[in-house]
Amino acid sequence: MPITKSAKKALRQSERKRGENTRLKSRVRDIIKRVRKLAEEKQTKEALALLPQAYKAIDKAAKKFAISPSSAPRVKSRLARTAQKSS
């Protein structure tokens, strides 16, 4: 356990950041799963309709460094390719 005042504050901050990062990452994972599931079921229109929401979640997570900003474009590209292949 932290002893000094600054160490206690650092612990509070890191817990807060961890919670926010977890929420952002789970949003990204959930929407990616939904798009992939729709693509797997050959529901191309529905999968493509979800892409803007997925992009938004990925971009927000990258902006706040919950995921690596350099990996966000790669994830979006692969997701779009998966959604379009389902037809």
Order of helices and strands: HHH
- N→C terminal distance: 55 Å
The CATH architecture can be named as Up-down Bundle
Give the biggest beta sheet.
none
CATH superfamily: Ribosomal protein S20
Low-pLDDT runs: none
Query: How many domains would you count in the coordinates?
Result: 1
Global morphology: elongated
Structural class: mainly alpha
Report the radius of gyration as a whole number of Å: 17 Å
User: Helical element count?
Assistant: 3
Q: Report the mean per-residue pLDDT as an integer.
A: 94
Fraction of residues in helix? over 70%
Topology, number of strands: 0
- Percentage of residues in DSSP E strands: under 5%
CATH class equals: Mainly Alpha
CATH topology: Methane Monooxygenase Hydroxylase, Chain G, domain 1
Describe this structure in words.
The protein has 87 residues and is an all-alpha fold. It has a single domain (5-85), classed as Ribosomal protein S20 (Methane Monooxygenase Hydroxylase, Chain G, domain 1, Up-down Bundle), CATH 1.20.58. It contains 3 helices and no strands. Helix 1 (5-40) runs antiparallel to helix 2 and helix 2 runs antiparallel to helix 3. The longest helix is centred in the first third of the chain and has 36 residues, at 5-40. The protein is elongated, with a radius of gyration of 17 Å.
